[in-house]
């Protein structure tokens, strides 16, 4: 296909291959060149191919005529640059420009004397490729040179004139040995290319095609490279070669076990690339991702997402998730052909869909090339998951980034090739019986049957033919070819012309049969001139057709050849052939066979747009009361007994539904199969075949089994059934053939397709294999609103309720749980105060209630806040309160002891648990007074027992302890303040108050300050710093002091006389120093 770069192109020699010494001009202008001397093509890792030249070993280029502007582009690589190398020119015509590398510098010689040689300031080195672009314009009086796409050096000429692009010999050299340099890809234009166009041609030359897999055929599981390399794609599993409406044939993958692999090769390790592919997904994929083409390690990956976008990925500097932005959702159309191309030049990564730019972005660096195999239609990371389900065609890999218009041209070229195939094969045909079925029966009718030959013009142009009086092998319009053994000898016997196959149609003639070992051919001709407009059909009736009974029931191919036809107004003859299938059916024997066919375990499949797979178990049972039904096994006959299973299907080539009642589309049903581990495979061979490339047929043949025993049941599990067609009944056909003593026939079994599936005692909604008594699945979840949801339950009575009830098996009559939605606060109430209740039958208050306002009640049906719990809370973890002003805002969080009465007084108590016992730790009185350690606040803050003031890092800090008690005469009591650690010190203040209970005449008021310390690990030493106050009343019978008890620091009080009990209080304060 022509692109903008082809405008003005006079010559393009790719210089990669030659045939009989000729180099083909790929511009389409027919300016082929020739090789002289020992000049010859050679392989090259950079350009893919080149020509070795030098000395008198040259390329002879033909004359291209006069030009007032030109561009010459050529690649060269010299092993030495000490002499002269002619890159263009050098012929006998003095008006032809010359491009010469002389001593490592380029000189351009224009023919007129006033345009002297022009040398450019470029020095070429030996041993590397250079790309030169030389442009000349008479009008602009400019000559320019660009090397490797760099900005050009421009020479302004004094005078200019038209030049002659004459015949010349390029590649000759002087002053050095022959064949010392290489030439690659010569282009000559009759115009001046822009700098951008020049760089695009460089890009195209470097982006050489390294792999092309048409995927139109498989031979022994292999698909060869059409680009000419030794690379081959090997199939895993058994991908199908299917007839296709666009490419004629393509490869279809099942999305489960089928893929293709091209072994690693240095040519596939690319850091710049273009990868293109045609893909046709079978409906919306089930998996989130489907791998299309790429290499493990994230080399030029093309992934298909189930939302219909392309994911282009590669690896850069250890990041295996580099890539272009994803294309928009819906870029890929399901059940249709899409062209996808990805490019990467090391700076920019781009994705094209159907020839149009869909996504582009920076690469972040040069892609990394990995020594891994190229994978198709599978998990591109090598994990055997995420496989592609659908068809692929024309996978191409280039070693560079192609420009956008070349990508579009490649796509158009594929489409043009398809159009050419259609144009070259304008006729289609069918061979049908009276019921419009491609069937010829085996019966005992000696006159044979009628077959209707329908020949249709499938091209876009009218077909015409000239009259032929009598058809023959050398002069006919149509030839109908049957395989040998299709038709019985009785209708082919030329000695009995009255029984011969004949044609019944206006002015059509048929020859006698031409029989050989392989086939039987009838030649047909029209005795008058005819035309056949696009879409119109010739209707011909074939009479006296008798099927050969020897091979029993089978499907055979019939081929229609055509010749002597032309498109209207043209003279080029149309020659070709088309193939159709004809089924031979046995109709001898008893018509009614005592078999039963039906389904075991349910007759429903899920129709969810083809996303889910369903399974049916078809059974065939012997109902004959007289005994076994005979079978002919495959190991004793070429016409064995068979069971054929087919389905009503909707062809995927239709633009609109013609069979909505069918089980599924052809794509839905292409993967149907009997599982490999099914028990039926022990006695029956199972084969999957494609019927006319549209649907799947399963054929079961007994391996060695000779009968179906009395009451024997054959269970045939049918897996991987999908449906994307509307709900309703559909037909499955079980055809039986070659059963001894019986005519061929069929059972029609009804399959119900819908959103609800029953499997045994389980019901699935939206799922084909329910895992519970009721299993509901949605592929895409449904947000709730008044008219939508995953499950809708309505009630029509005002103030009513809808419930889901869970009953107890132990006490079913009274114990149950439920989820209930009701319109009002109480069932049968009025107003609008709906609520959702989760409850049990044991207690009317054991419920969870959700009100429309968002209030939740636990144990109460009338929650007064967002959460209202009527009872104790038991939980784990933390309680977090953010600011009342808002989450993340600066403010205040509130914990309240409060109700809505407006009159009660409520305190707040914080409790802890110590060794299993409940401790009232903090009590907040309704007045706001706080008590710590007891529940009786005597002031705004009351602390029971001890207080502690500490600073960061201090082990204890400033402690206050209060002790009290009674003491009698002769007693002493000690109270431990603290234990002093090694090397530590402390400052202690002790206050003691003592007095007798009866007379109140004896008292002691004592306050003293001490320093306590330990030297090394010795016992504590106590030094009294001051006795701040000591006052004794009455008798001196009381004493108080600070002592050491081991390493404990203690306060000791004592009473030495007087008979009355004494009460005392000890206030100890201490500040610990560092240890």
TrEMBL record:
The lineage of its organism: Bacteria, Bacillati, Actinomycetota, Actinomycetes, Cryptosporangiales. Pfam families: Laminin_G_3. Coiled coil: none annotated. Keywords: Disulfide bond, Signal. Residues 68-196, 271-405 form the LamG-like jellyroll fold domain. This is LamG domain-containing protein.
């Amino acid at each position: 296909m022509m692109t903008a770069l082809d405008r003005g192109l006079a010559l393009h020699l790719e210089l990669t291959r030659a045939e009989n010494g000729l180099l083909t001009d790929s511009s389409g202008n027919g300016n082929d060149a020739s090789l002289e001397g020992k000049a010859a093509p050679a392989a090259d890792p950079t350009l893919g191919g080149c020509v070795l030249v030098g000395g008198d070993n040259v390329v002879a280029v033909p004359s291209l005529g006069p030009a007032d502007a030109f561009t010459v582009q050529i690649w060269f690589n010299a092993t030495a640059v000490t002499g002269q190398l002619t890159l263009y020119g050098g012929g006998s015509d003095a008006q032809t420009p010359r491009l010469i590398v002389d001593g490592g510098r380029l000189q351009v010689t224009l023919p007129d004397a006033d345009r002297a040689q022009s040398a450019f300031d470029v020095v070429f080195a030996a041993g590397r490729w250079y790309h030169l672009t030389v442009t000349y314009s008479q009008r602009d009086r400019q000559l320019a040179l660009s090397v490797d796409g760099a900005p050009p050096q421009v020479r302004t000429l004094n005078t200019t004139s038209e030049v002659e692009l004459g015949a010349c010999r390029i590649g000759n050299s002087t002053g050095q040995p022959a064949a010392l340099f290489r030439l690659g890809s010569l282009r000559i234009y009759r115009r001046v290319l822009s700098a951008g166009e020049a760089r695009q041609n460089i890009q195209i030359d470097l982006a050489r095609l390294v792999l092309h897999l048409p995927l139109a055929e498989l031979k022994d599981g292999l698909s060869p490279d059409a680009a000419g390399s030794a690379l081959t794609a090997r199939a895993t599993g058994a991908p199908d070669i299917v007839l296709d409406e666009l490419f004629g044939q393509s490869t279809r993958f099942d999305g489960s076990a089928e893929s293709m692999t091209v072994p690693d090769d240095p040519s596939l390790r690319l850091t710049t690339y273009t990868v293109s592919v045609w893909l046709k997904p079978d409906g919306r994929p089930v998996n989130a991702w489907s791998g299309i083409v790429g290499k493990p390690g994230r080399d030029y990956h093309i992934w298909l997402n189930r939302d219909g976008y392309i994911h282009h990925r590669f690896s850069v500097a250890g990041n295996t998730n580099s890539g272009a932005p994803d294309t928009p959702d819906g870029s890929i159309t399901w059940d249709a052909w899409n062209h996808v191309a990805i490019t990467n030049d090391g700076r920019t990564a781009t994705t094209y869909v159907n020839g149009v730019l869909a996504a582009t972005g920076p690469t972040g660096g040069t892609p990394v090339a990995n020594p891994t195999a190229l994978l198709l239609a599978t998990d591109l990371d090598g994990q055997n998951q995420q496989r592609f389900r659908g068809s692929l065609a024309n996978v191409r890999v280039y070693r560079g980034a192609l420009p956008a218009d070349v990508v579009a041209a490649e796509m158009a070229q594929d489409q043009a090739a398809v159009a050419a195939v259609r144009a070259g094969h304008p006729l289609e045909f069918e061979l049908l019986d009276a019921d419009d079925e491609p069937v010829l029966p085996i019966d005992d009718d000696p006159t044979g049957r009628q077959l209707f030959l329908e020949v249709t013009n499938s091209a876009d142009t009218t077909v015409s033919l000239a009259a032929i009086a009598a058809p023959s092998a050398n002069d006919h319009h149509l030839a109908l070819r049957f395989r040998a053994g299709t038709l019985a000898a009785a209708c082919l016997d030329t000695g009995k012309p009255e029984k011969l196959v004949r044609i019944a149609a206006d002015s059509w003639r048929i020859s006698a049969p031409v029989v050989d070992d392989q086939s039987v051919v009838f030649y047909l001709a029209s005795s008058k001139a005819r035309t056949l407009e696009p879409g119109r059909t010739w209707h011909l009736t074939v009479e006296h057709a008798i099927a050969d009974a020897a091979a029993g029931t089978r499907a055979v191919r019939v081929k229609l050849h055509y010749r002597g036809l032309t498109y209207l107004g043209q003279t080029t003859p149309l020659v070709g052939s088309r193939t159709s299938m004809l089924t031979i059916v046995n109709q001898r024997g008893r018509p009614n066979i005592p078999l039963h066919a039906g389904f075991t375990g349910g007759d429903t499949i899920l129709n969810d747009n083809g996303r889910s797979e369903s399974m049916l178990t078809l059974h065939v049972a012997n109902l004959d009361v007289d005994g076994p039904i005979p079978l002919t096994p495959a190991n004793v006959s070429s016409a064995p007994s068979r069971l054929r299973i087919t389905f009503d299907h909707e062809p995927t080539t239709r633009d609109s539904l013609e069979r909505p009642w069918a089980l599924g589309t052809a794509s839905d049903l292409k993967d149907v199969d009997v599982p490999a581990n099914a028990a039926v495979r022990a006695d029956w061979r199972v084969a999957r075949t494609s019927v006319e490339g549209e649907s799947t047929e399963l054929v079961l043949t007994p391996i060695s089994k000779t009968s179906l025993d009395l009451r024997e049941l054959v269970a045939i599990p049918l897996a991987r059934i999908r449906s994307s067609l509307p709900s309703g009944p559909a037909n499955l056909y079980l055809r039986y053939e070659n059963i001894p003593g019986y005519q061929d026939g069929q059972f029609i079994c009804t399959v119900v397709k819908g959103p609800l599936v029953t499997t045994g005692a389980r019901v699935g909604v939206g799922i084909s294999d329910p895992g519970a008594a009721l299993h509901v699945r949605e592929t895409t979840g449904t947000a709730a609103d008044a008219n939508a949801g995953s499950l809708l339950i309505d009630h029509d009575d005002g103030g009513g309720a809808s419930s889901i009830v869970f009953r107890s098996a132990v006490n079913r009559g009274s114990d149950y749980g439920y989820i209930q939605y009701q319109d009002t606060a109480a069932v049968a109430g009025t107003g609008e105060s709906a609520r959702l209740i989760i409850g049990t039958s044991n207690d009317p208050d054991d419920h969870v209630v959700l009100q429309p306002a968002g209030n939740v009640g636990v144990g109460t049906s009338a929650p007064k806040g967002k959460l209202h719990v009527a009872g104790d809370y038991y939980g784990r973890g933390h309680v977090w309160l953010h600011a009342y002003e808002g989450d993340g805002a600066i403010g205040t969080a509130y914990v309240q002891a409060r109700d809505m009465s407006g009159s009660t007084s409520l305190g707040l108590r914080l409790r802890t648990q110590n060794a299993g016992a409940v401790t009232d730790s903090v009590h907040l009185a309704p007045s706001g007074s706080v008590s710590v350690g007891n529940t009786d606040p005597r002031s705004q803050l009351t602390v029971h027992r001890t207080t502690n003031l500490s600073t960061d890092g201090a082990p204890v800090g400033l402690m206050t302890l209060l002790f009290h008690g009674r003491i009698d005469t002769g007693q002493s009591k000690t109270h431990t303040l603290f234990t002093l650690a090694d090397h530590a010190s402390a400052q202690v203040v002790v206050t003691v108050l003592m007095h007798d209970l009866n007379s109140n005449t004896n008292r002691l008021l004592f306050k003293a300050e001490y320093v306590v310390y330990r030297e090394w690990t010795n016992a504590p030493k106590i030094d009294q710093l001051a006795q701040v106050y000591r006052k004794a009343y009455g008798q001196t019978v009381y004493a108080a002091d600070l002592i050491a008890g081991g390493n404990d620091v203690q306060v000791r009080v004592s009473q030495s006389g007087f008979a009355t009990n004494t009460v005392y209080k000890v206030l100890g304060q201490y500040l610990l120093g560092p240890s």
